From TrEMBL:
CDD domains: MDH_cytoplasmic_cytosolic. Belongs to the LDH/MDH superfamily. MDH type 2 family. Residues 198-366 form the Lactate/malate dehydrogenase C-terminal domain. Substrate binds at residues 134, 140, 173, 204. NAD(+) binds at residues 53-59, 147, 171-173. Residues 49-194 form the Lactate/malate dehydrogenase N-terminal domain. It is an enzyme of class 1 (oxidoreductase). GO terms for biological process: malate metabolic process; tricarboxylic acid cycle. Keywords: Membrane, NAD, Oxidoreductase, Transmembrane, Transmembrane helix, Tricarboxylic acid cycle. The lineage of its organism: Eukaryota, Viridiplantae, Streptophyta, Embryophyta, Tracheophyta. It holds the Pfam family Ldh_1_C. Its EC number is 1.1.1.37. It comes from Vicia faba. GO terms for molecular function: L-malate dehydrogenase (NAD+) activity. This is Malate dehydrogenase.
């Protein structure tokens, strides 16, 4: 080895050592800063979350999940605003007592009220659970009319008093159309910030596939709920996969029973709500609350790479769905924004089902507007 090569090798080693040292020092510095922040308790600003209808079944299951950090993570403090009717207010006082008794470290404040303006003040995230369910003997138009008036009033309060970048999730039925009314009466809230819950149906579809294949539910991904949160929704597995020891495998291939997938699977997911009412004599609340947490969590924190979820969002015409409807699409989320997954192949059977549920939403929209 001549002198020149030896010099180069020494230089190379020195540069390498220096680089490693710089990275190590940087890492150490970052660790120290984080540790010091912990010691000084440099807390994040709390996020204010509104839950309407908070003394109801879903509200009661949802608020402890939020207070425990299931929505925004274990390091994010929250303030809860909870809205109820006069009739529900006594029960809401009880919910507040229980929240205090649970001593949630992340819960920095609880406001209970029957005043929609106070409820909406400075909220960053609004979960709209309040609604009038259809009871025996009630006309469809009657139910729609009562929900339209709730969503009109609450939209105006959010418009005027919520934080400018407030994200809204509508849970109460008819969820898609309630969200649409809210959008109409809160025009300054960007349409990208108004969504409705179809994640429960999405999770139900994951659950059914996991049961059928006897695989863990976390290994199943990319099912889709298209359309309305109603019995016309279309649970679609054509792009869904399961993680196996041999990589991702298509759900259709693994199930290898198209008849089951095109019939029983779809109706089971569509009618799961009814099956739960029959068994529990009450509608699904635990799974609805959990799905609401999943929806907001993924929207704010982001979806894992290669994974999508279903969200009811304002249609931009993707997949031939009429713009101006709140329709459930497959979406990915990044930096607090959702985007509709583009370019998925839609076969003939799916096309029919996508259009059928869109048609129902068009009719619901017309009915809602006739109630304004
Ligand atoms: N999108 C979904 O996946 C999904 C799933 C399950 C249930 N839901 C719907 O969620 C809604 C709530 O379900 P639940 O089981 O909790 O019902 P619930 O009747 O137990 O609770 C609703 C609560 O809303 C309150 N409320 C009614 N009008 C109000 C108003 N104007 N302001 C404030 N509060 C008001 C009621 O007092 C009640 O406590 C229903 O519409 C239900 O159909 C949607």
């Amino acid at each position: 080895m001549n002198m020149e090569m030896l010099a180069l090798e020494i230089l190379d080693n020195t540069v390498l050592k220096k680089t490693v040292l710089v990275f190590f020092c940087g890492f150490l510095f970052w660790k120290i800063v984080r540790y010091m922040c912990g010691l000084l308790k440099v807390d994040k600003e709390p996020v204010t979350i509104l839950v309407t209808g908070a003394a109801g079944q879903i509200g009661y299951a949802l608020v402890p999940m939020i207070a425990r950090g299931m929505v925004l993570g274990p390091n994010q403090p929250v303030i809860l605003h909870m809205l109820e009717t006069e009739a529900g207010f006594e029960a809401l006082k009880g919910v507040k007592m229980e929240l205090i008794d649970a001593a949630f470290p992340l819960l920095k404040g609880v406001v209970i009220t029957t005043d929609v303006v106070e409820a909406c003040k400075d909220v960053n995230i609004a979960v709209m659970v309040a609604g009038i369910p259809r009871k025996e003997g009630m006309e469809r138009k009657d139910v729609m009319s009562r929900n339209v008036s709730i969503y009109k009033a609450q939209a105006s309060a959010l418009e005027e008093h919520a934080a400018a970048d407030c994200k809204v999730l509508v849970v109460a039925n008819p969820a898609n159309t309630n969200a649409l009314i809210l959008k109409e009466f809160a025009p300054s809230i960007p349409e990208k910030n108004i969504t409705c819950l179809t994640r429960l149906d999405h999770n139900r579809a994951l659950g059914q596939i996991s049961e059928k294949l006897n695989v863990h539910v976390s290994d199943v991904k990319n099912v889709i709920i298209w359309g309305n949160h109603s019995s016309t929704q279309y649970p679609d597995v054509n792009h869904a996969t399961v993680a196996t020891s041999n990589g991702q495998k298509n759900v259709r291939e693994l199930v290898s029973d198209d008849y089951w997938l095109n019939n029983e699977f779809i109706t089971t997911v569509q009618q799961r709500g009814g099956a739960i009412i029959k068994a529990r004599k009450l509608s699904s609340a635990l799974s609805a609350a959990s799905a609401a947490c999943d929806h907001i969590h993924d929207w704010v924190v982001g979806t894992p790479k290669g994974t999508w979820v279903s969200m009811g969002v304002y249609s931009d015409g993707s997949y031939g769905i009429q713009p101006g409807l709140i329709y459930s699409f497959p979406v990915t989320c990044d930096k607090g924004e959702w985007s509709i997954v583009q370019g998925l192949k839609i076969d003939e059977l799916s096309r029919e089902k996508l259009d059928k549920t869109a048609q129902e939403l068009i009719e619901e929209k017309a009915l809602a507007y006739s109630c304004l």
